[in-house]
Amino acid sequence: KFCLRTMAGIERPAMAALWPTLKGESVVLDVGANIGADASQLIDFALMGAAMARALYDLERPSVGLLNIGVEEVKGMEEVKDAGQILREYHLPNLNYHGFVEGDDLGRGTVDVVVTEGFSGNIALKTAEGTAKQIAEYLRSAMGRTLLARLGYLLAKSAFDHLREKMDPRKVNGAVMLGLNGIVIKSHGGTDAEGFAAAIAMGHDMAANEIIGRIASDLNYFGGIRSKEARSIAD
Hints:
Blueprint (H helix, E strand, L loop, with lengths): L13 E8 L2 E6 L9 H19 L5 E5 L10 H13 L5 E6 L3 H4 L4 E3 L2 H26 L3 H9 L1 H10 L8 E4 L5 E3 L6 H16 L2 H24 L1
């Protein structure tokens, strides 16, 4: 942040990660760059996450949801409800605001982009990583418990290999720091060569799809709407 500086109009950068889902992948941010965020910052995260989803998945209007404790509009912290109201009212052309989503929507792939502040986002990320390891250990223990279980594993090996590949965190290694005047990728420190390769590929995709330009364009558009509204109120 101190070397590249934040982009014009961005108060705080956000760390965006790819999240495996039943439908493919979603972009989730912020997963640890900040603790807490106000409504304006959550809207910035939504704009940046939608720009990343468009760049990666060739979506015209990615669906965006705000992570909350319920889908009802009356639930949640004030900053989350305020951000939701603004996103709902503005009908932005480059994202489709879905509304609030809950924790179980992350794995379902209910929306293309899930927006939250970094404290809860990081907890969700670490919980998912830990749960995946726990399930893998349960399966490993169960498959080796008896001779019949080991035989069953051999018969279903291709299915288990497919499951292992789907749950492999190396495939989605490389969180993107969005909102800076440059491309920054954060890799998991405990990964291997395959994981680092995925992080490098992510950086290449961000550069090739001009993510910084996309974000700047969306921020300018949204800023123009807010300025026009402010002038109208003043008049």
